Amino acid sequence: MIPPALFPVLLLAHITLALSLFLPSFLLPFTMRTRARDGTPVVAPPGRFVRGLLWLERNGTTVIGVGVAVTGVGMLSILGPAFAQQPWLLAGLAIYTGVLVTSFFIQRPGLRRLVGLRSDASPEEQERWKRRARRQRYISYGMAGAIGLIGWLMMAKPGA
């Protein structure tokens, strides 16, 4: 049995881990550029921030996902049956599950295709890359909206 006094610690850890689980999938489409602001092609390798996001996307998702699951189960064990009586919490969990599924099965494979653009790519290949990048950004906008909705549900607790 987990002491109820640990709930705030579990909640903070859960939120931090949950955000770090989807954040790379959300941010990477905005960091992939083929042209600099002045219109010249970008041929430099990605910076430290992008490399860090790529590393986290590649290596950290399993560990972070396990952490999210463990802290979530810990919070559910503290809440007990009261969890099922809070529809805003159930809705937030359902939305978060949708974001994670989108992040893992749609966003990650799409990002992998974006990483491989060569500096000597043909104009057709560059145009295909731009379409993919645009689509990935739109998916990220949807994920951001869903996370915003979760945040609103957690703060407003409608119907509670």
- Given as residue ranges, the uncertain stretches (5+ residues, pLDDT < 50) are none
Binned, the helix content reads over 70%
> What percentage of the residues does DSSP assign to strands (E)?
under 5%
Main sheet attributes: strand count, strand direction, barrel closure = none
Based on DSSP secondary structure assignment, what is the total number of beta strands? Answer: 0
Shape descriptor reads elongated
Summed up, the domain count is 1
Reading the helices and strands in chain order gives: HHHH
Annotation field: number of helices: 4
Measured between the Cα atoms of the first and last residue, the distance is 26 Å
The SS-based structural class is: mainly alpha
Average of per-residue pLDDT values: 83
Rg calc: 19 Å
What labels describe this entry?
160 residues, mainly alpha
